[in-house]
């Protein structure tokens, strides 16, 4: 039984998630989670299969229309999931639809309309291939380089987001042609074809939402961190030791005894961003201890010594 009606939690049982939403079977498949999970919780299963639990829950919650969080998303895990989704859709889902579609229309009659329907689907499948190939060749490698700290000069995730649209509209058009205009018996094969088309449409919508609502924001945050780091490193390399206002704010809070997590909350920044700032400040000033940084802050008027408790 799901413990919360708001969102799935790490302590929920995997089988309860599947019973709540059978579409999560696809999520399990793309994370390579086998059946036979018994009474294991999401946390236990993710730990056993070395899957980032926060990323799994974000995807499962989004697909199920529940609240989700991207604060602790692990991008390598998300990229692996999206690549598996591409492979499933391109190598299994679309070919299966085509096979059943061909059988369905050929059972009735092989005429000009039937030929055009198959051609329509083939053109749509090519469009999906191009869409996902662009992500596999351009977008995902860009993110992997970003994770290494490498900045691309001619690409940002906003370039992808601004052009990223759902590829499900034509699939819905094909379904509507059968349901509203193509008068032919509702055979088992045609029923199966239309059922598969609907399922594929739902899968593609979820896939697009995962990229728009989880991947893009997570990469934007990473870009901000990496670009900040690179700018600081460039300043250090050029001999520029002048502190920015943000760096002074962080030094002041360090001098007051706040930990990185507390500083992140105070400044509404991510923990990773504060950690990056601290590293850059240490490299810029060649000061690595909190005590020495506090003395530096006092000497340069960044903090009033009377406001600091002497420990």
TrEMBL record:
Keyword Transcription regulation attributed: yes
Short name of one Pfam family: GerE
Swiss-Prot/TrEMBL keywords: DNA-binding, Transcription, Transcription regulation
The UniProt record lists the keyword Translocase: no
Entries under InterPro entries matching the protein: Hemerythrin-like, Sig_transdc_resp-reg_C-effctor, Tscrpt_reg_LuxR_C, WH-like_DNA-bd_sf
HTH luxR-type domain segment(s): 236-301
PROSITE patterns with a match to the protein in the record: HTH_LUXR_1 (PS00622), HTH_LUXR_2 (PS50043)
SMART domains per UniProt: HTH_LUXR (SM00421)
Gene3D superfamilies named among the record's database cross-references: nmb1532 protein domain like, Winged helix-like DNA-binding domain superfamily/Winged helix DNA-binding domain
PANTHER family (alphabetical): DNA-BINDING TRANSCRIPTIONAL ACTIVATOR DEVR_DOSR (PTHR44688)
Protein name, per record: LuxR C-terminal-related transcriptional regulator
Source organism per UniProt: Heminiphilus faecis
